[in-house]
Amino acid sequence: MARRLRIQLEGGVYHVISRGTNREDIFKDDRDRLRFFDILDYTVQKHKWIIYSYCLMNNHYHLLIETPLANLSKGMHLLNSVYCRKFNRRHGRVGTLLQERFRSLLVTEQSYLLELTRYIVLNPVRAQFVQKPQEWMWSSYRATIGLEEPPPFLRADLLLKFFSEHKLRAREHFKAFVLKGLESYLEYLKRNKENGDGYNWGIDKLQQFHKQLAFETREKRPTLNQIFRKVIERGIIEAVYKWGYTHTEIGKHLGVHRSTVSRRASNWKKSIVKVELITTS
What we know:
Elements lengths: L11 E8 L10 H18 L2 E7 L3 E8 L4 H20 L11 E4 L3 H12 L1 H4 L14 H4 L11 H5 L6 H28 L8 H12 L9 H19 L4 H8 L3 H17 L7
Antiparallel strand pairs: 1-3, 1-4, 2-3
Helix pairs in contact: 1-2, 9-11, 10-11
Protein backbone atom coordinates (compact mmCIF):
# COMPACT_ATOMS: atom_id res chain seq x y z
CA MET A 1 0.00 0.00 0.00
CA ALA A 2 1.43 3.38 -1.03
CA ARG A 3 2.21 5.90 1.66
CA ARG A 4 0.04 8.95 1.94
CA LEU A 5 1.77 12.10 0.79
CA ARG A 6 2.71 14.42 3.64
CA ILE A 7 1.43 17.97 3.26
CA GLN A 8 4.26 20.47 3.64
CA LEU A 9 3.50 24.17 3.58
CA GLU A 10 5.37 27.41 4.01
CA GLY A 11 4.09 28.70 7.33
CA GLY A 12 2.47 25.35 8.12
CA VAL A 13 1.93 24.44 11.77
CA TYR A 14 2.19 20.76 12.72
CA HIS A 15 1.74 18.52 15.72
CA VAL A 16 4.52 15.95 15.31
CA ILE A 17 4.82 12.66 17.21
CA SER A 18 7.84 10.38 16.83
CA ARG A 19 7.91 7.02 18.61
CA GLY A 20 10.50 4.40 19.37
CA THR A 21 10.53 1.26 17.24
CA ASN A 22 8.36 -1.38 18.92
CA ARG A 23 7.63 1.32 21.53
CA GLU A 24 11.19 1.03 22.81
CA ASP A 25 12.41 3.79 25.13
CA ILE A 26 14.21 6.49 23.18
CA PHE A 27 15.36 8.39 26.29
CA LYS A 28 17.18 6.32 28.91
CA ASP A 29 18.16 9.22 31.16
CA ASP A 30 18.45 13.00 31.38
CA ARG A 31 21.70 13.00 29.42
CA ASP A 32 19.81 11.58 26.43
CA ARG A 33 17.14 14.25 26.77
CA LEU A 34 19.70 17.04 26.92
CA ARG A 35 21.43 15.61 23.85
CA PHE A 36 18.09 15.61 22.05
CA PHE A 37 17.60 19.27 22.99
CA ASP A 38 20.99 20.13 21.48
CA ILE A 39 20.10 18.40 18.21
CA LEU A 40 16.63 19.98 18.17
CA ASP A 41 18.19 23.41 18.67
CA TYR A 42 20.54 22.79 15.74
CA THR A 43 17.63 21.61 13.57
CA VAL A 44 15.54 24.65 14.47
CA GLN A 45 18.36 27.01 13.53
CA LYS A 46 19.20 25.20 10.29
CA HIS A 47 15.62 24.91 9.05
CA LYS A 48 14.22 28.12 10.61
CA TRP A 49 11.56 26.26 12.56
CA ILE A 50 9.43 27.82 15.30
CA ILE A 51 8.70 25.57 18.29
CA TYR A 52 5.58 26.49 20.26
CA SER A 53 5.42 23.46 22.54
CA TYR A 54 7.15 20.16 23.24
CA CYS A 55 7.10 17.17 25.55
CA LEU A 56 9.63 14.36 25.86
CA MET A 57 8.19 11.12 27.20
CA ASN A 58 10.08 7.83 27.59
CA ASN A 59 9.35 6.16 24.26
CA HIS A 60 8.15 9.09 22.16
CA TYR A 61 8.12 12.87 21.92
CA HIS A 62 5.71 15.60 20.83
CA LEU A 63 6.54 18.86 19.05
CA LEU A 64 4.30 21.71 17.91
CA ILE A 65 6.22 23.22 15.00
CA GLU A 66 5.77 26.03 12.50
CA THR A 67 7.78 25.61 9.29
CA PRO A 68 8.28 28.93 7.47
CA LEU A 69 10.12 27.10 4.64
CA ALA A 70 7.93 24.01 4.02
CA ASN A 71 10.67 21.65 5.19
CA LEU A 72 9.06 19.45 7.83
CA SER A 73 10.26 16.11 6.45
CA LYS A 74 13.79 17.33 5.82
CA GLY A 75 14.07 18.73 9.34
CA MET A 76 12.60 15.64 10.96
CA HIS A 77 15.02 13.42 9.05
CA LEU A 78 17.92 15.48 10.37
CA LEU A 79 16.60 15.50 13.93
CA ASN A 80 15.80 11.80 14.17
CA SER A 81 18.76 10.43 12.23
CA VAL A 82 21.35 12.42 14.17
CA TYR A 83 19.73 11.60 17.51
CA CYS A 84 19.56 7.90 16.60
CA ARG A 85 23.29 7.81 15.78
CA LYS A 86 24.21 9.57 19.01
CA PHE A 87 21.92 7.35 21.08
CA ASN A 88 23.22 4.13 19.51
CA ARG A 89 26.83 5.14 19.97
CA ARG A 90 26.31 6.02 23.62
CA HIS A 91 24.34 2.90 24.51
CA GLY A 92 26.25 0.42 22.35
CA ARG A 93 23.29 -0.58 20.22
CA VAL A 94 22.68 -0.95 16.49
CA GLY A 95 19.60 -0.63 14.34
CA THR A 96 16.72 1.76 14.03
CA LEU A 97 15.70 3.58 17.19
CA LEU A 98 12.70 5.56 15.95
CA GLN A 99 9.84 4.51 13.74
CA GLU A 100 10.66 5.47 10.18
CA ARG A 101 7.38 7.25 9.62
CA PHE A 102 6.73 10.02 12.14
CA ARG A 103 3.16 11.18 12.60
CA SER A 104 2.18 14.75 11.78
CA LEU A 105 -1.09 16.65 11.94
CA LEU A 106 -1.45 19.89 10.01
CA VAL A 107 -3.07 22.51 12.24
CA THR A 108 -5.49 24.65 10.25
CA GLU A 109 -7.37 26.39 13.07
CA GLN A 110 -5.88 28.72 15.67
CA SER A 111 -8.16 27.28 18.35
CA TYR A 112 -6.82 23.81 17.69
CA LEU A 113 -3.24 25.10 17.95
CA LEU A 114 -3.98 26.13 21.52
CA GLU A 115 -5.80 22.88 22.24
CA LEU A 116 -2.80 20.89 21.00
CA THR A 117 -0.45 22.90 23.18
CA ARG A 118 -2.54 21.93 26.18
CA TYR A 119 -2.76 18.31 25.04
CA ILE A 120 1.03 18.08 24.61
CA VAL A 121 2.00 19.41 28.03
CA LEU A 122 -0.60 17.23 29.78
CA ASN A 123 0.92 14.03 28.38
CA PRO A 124 2.94 13.22 31.54
CA VAL A 125 -0.21 13.60 33.67
CA ARG A 126 -2.21 11.29 31.43
CA ALA A 127 0.65 8.76 31.57
CA GLN A 128 0.52 9.04 35.40
CA PHE A 129 4.19 10.04 35.57
CA VAL A 130 3.21 13.11 37.60
CA GLN A 131 0.08 14.63 39.09
CA LYS A 132 0.62 18.19 37.84
CA PRO A 133 2.14 19.35 34.53
CA GLN A 134 4.71 21.58 36.26
CA GLU A 135 6.21 18.50 37.95
CA TRP A 136 7.46 17.12 34.63
CA MET A 137 10.83 18.65 33.77
CA TRP A 138 10.83 17.69 30.09
CA SER A 139 7.95 19.65 28.59
CA SER A 140 7.57 23.29 27.60
CA TYR A 141 5.00 23.96 30.34
CA ARG A 142 7.40 25.08 33.07
CA ALA A 143 9.18 27.54 30.80
CA THR A 144 5.93 28.87 29.37
CA ILE A 145 4.52 29.76 32.80
CA GLY A 146 7.84 31.26 33.94
CA LEU A 147 9.14 28.58 36.33
CA GLU A 148 12.40 28.27 34.39
CA GLU A 149 14.25 29.84 31.50
CA PRO A 150 13.07 28.49 28.14
CA PRO A 151 15.53 26.51 26.03
CA PRO A 152 16.83 28.54 23.07
CA PHE A 153 14.62 26.77 20.52
CA LEU A 154 11.31 27.38 22.35
CA ARG A 155 9.25 30.43 21.34
CA ALA A 156 7.05 30.58 24.41
CA ASP A 157 6.79 34.33 23.85
CA LEU A 158 4.89 33.82 20.59
CA LEU A 159 2.53 31.31 22.16
CA LEU A 160 1.79 33.60 25.10
CA LYS A 161 0.78 36.43 22.77
CA PHE A 162 -2.28 34.38 21.86
CA PHE A 163 -3.45 34.93 25.45
CA SER A 164 -2.37 38.51 26.21
CA GLU A 165 0.16 41.13 25.17
CA HIS A 166 1.19 41.37 28.84
CA LYS A 167 3.58 38.55 29.74
CA LEU A 168 2.51 37.97 33.34
CA ARG A 169 -1.16 38.07 32.47
CA ALA A 170 -0.58 35.77 29.50
CA ARG A 171 1.19 33.25 31.72
CA GLU A 172 -1.70 33.20 34.15
CA HIS A 173 -4.23 32.76 31.35
CA PHE A 174 -2.18 29.95 29.80
CA LYS A 175 -1.79 28.22 33.15
CA ALA A 176 -5.54 28.38 33.77
CA PHE A 177 -6.23 27.16 30.24
CA VAL A 178 -4.02 24.10 30.74
CA LEU A 179 -5.41 23.33 34.19
CA LYS A 180 -8.95 23.38 32.87
CA GLY A 181 -7.87 20.67 30.44
CA LEU A 182 -6.47 18.72 33.38
CA GLU A 183 -9.78 19.00 35.22
CA SER A 184 -11.59 17.76 32.11
CA TYR A 185 -9.22 14.81 31.87
CA LEU A 186 -9.60 13.85 35.54
CA GLU A 187 -13.37 14.03 35.23
CA TYR A 188 -13.23 11.86 32.12
CA LEU A 189 -10.97 9.38 33.93
CA LYS A 190 -13.28 9.24 36.94
CA ARG A 191 -16.33 8.70 34.77
CA ASN A 192 -14.69 5.79 32.93
CA LYS A 193 -13.50 4.26 36.20
CA GLU A 194 -17.05 4.35 37.49
CA ASN A 195 -18.12 2.60 34.28
CA GLY A 196 -15.70 -0.23 35.02
CA ASP A 197 -12.89 0.79 32.67
CA GLY A 198 -10.39 1.40 35.48
CA TYR A 199 -7.05 3.05 34.76
CA ASN A 200 -5.84 0.76 31.98
CA TRP A 201 -5.34 3.48 29.40
CA GLY A 202 -4.19 2.48 25.92
CA ILE A 203 -3.68 4.62 22.85
CA ASP A 204 -7.30 4.15 21.76
CA LYS A 205 -8.65 5.69 24.97
CA LEU A 206 -6.19 8.56 24.86
CA GLN A 207 -7.23 9.28 21.29
CA GLN A 208 -10.88 9.07 22.33
CA PHE A 209 -10.33 11.63 25.08
CA HIS A 210 -8.27 13.82 22.75
CA LYS A 211 -11.01 13.80 20.15
CA GLN A 212 -13.68 14.58 22.74
CA LEU A 213 -11.67 17.49 24.10
CA ALA A 214 -10.55 18.95 20.80
CA PHE A 215 -13.49 18.20 18.53
CA GLU A 216 -16.54 19.00 20.63
CA THR A 217 -18.33 19.93 17.44
CA ARG A 218 -17.16 18.66 14.07
CA GLU A 219 -17.42 21.05 11.16
CA LYS A 220 -19.32 20.15 8.03
CA ARG A 221 -17.43 20.11 4.75
CA PRO A 222 -16.68 23.78 3.96
CA THR A 223 -17.47 25.42 0.64
CA LEU A 224 -14.64 26.43 -1.68
CA ASN A 225 -15.34 30.07 -0.83
CA GLN A 226 -14.89 29.29 2.86
CA ILE A 227 -11.65 27.41 2.22
CA PHE A 228 -10.05 30.13 0.11
CA ARG A 229 -11.26 32.87 2.43
CA LYS A 230 -9.20 31.17 5.15
CA VAL A 231 -6.14 31.33 2.90
CA ILE A 232 -6.59 35.08 2.49
CA GLU A 233 -7.21 35.52 6.21
CA ARG A 234 -4.05 33.56 7.01
CA GLY A 235 -2.10 35.87 4.69
CA ILE A 236 -3.54 38.93 6.41
CA ILE A 237 -2.72 37.53 9.85
CA GLU A 238 0.87 36.73 8.86
CA ALA A 239 1.38 40.09 7.15
CA VAL A 240 0.08 42.03 10.17
CA TYR A 241 1.28 40.08 13.19
CA LYS A 242 4.45 38.48 11.86
CA TRP A 243 5.83 40.99 9.35
CA GLY A 244 4.31 44.26 10.51
CA TYR A 245 2.61 45.40 7.28
CA THR A 246 0.03 48.12 7.74
CA HIS A 247 -3.64 47.56 7.02
CA THR A 248 -3.43 50.13 4.21
CA GLU A 249 -0.54 48.31 2.50
CA ILE A 250 -2.34 44.98 2.69
CA GLY A 251 -5.60 46.50 1.48
CA LYS A 252 -3.90 47.96 -1.60
CA HIS A 253 -2.33 44.61 -2.40
CA LEU A 254 -5.63 42.73 -2.09
CA GLY A 255 -7.75 45.43 -3.68
CA VAL A 256 -9.93 45.95 -0.62
CA HIS A 257 -10.47 48.80 1.81
CA ARG A 258 -8.16 48.97 4.85
CA SER A 259 -11.21 48.61 7.13
CA THR A 260 -11.80 45.13 5.69
CA VAL A 261 -8.24 44.15 6.55
CA SER A 262 -8.58 45.65 10.02
CA ARG A 263 -11.81 43.75 10.65
CA ARG A 264 -10.33 40.41 9.54
CA ALA A 265 -7.23 40.87 11.72
CA SER A 266 -9.29 42.02 14.70
CA ASN A 267 -11.77 39.13 14.41
CA TRP A 268 -8.94 36.62 14.32
CA LYS A 269 -7.31 38.05 17.43
CA LYS A 270 -10.65 38.06 19.28
CA SER A 271 -11.27 34.44 18.29
CA ILE A 272 -7.93 33.45 19.81
CA VAL A 273 -8.67 35.22 23.05
CA LYS A 274 -12.10 33.59 23.25
CA VAL A 275 -10.73 30.06 23.03
CA GLU A 276 -11.00 29.08 26.66
CA LEU A 277 -9.34 32.30 27.77
CA ILE A 278 -9.92 31.77 31.45
CA THR A 279 -9.69 34.32 34.19
CA THR A 280 -9.56 33.06 37.73
CA SER A 281 -12.62 34.06 39.70
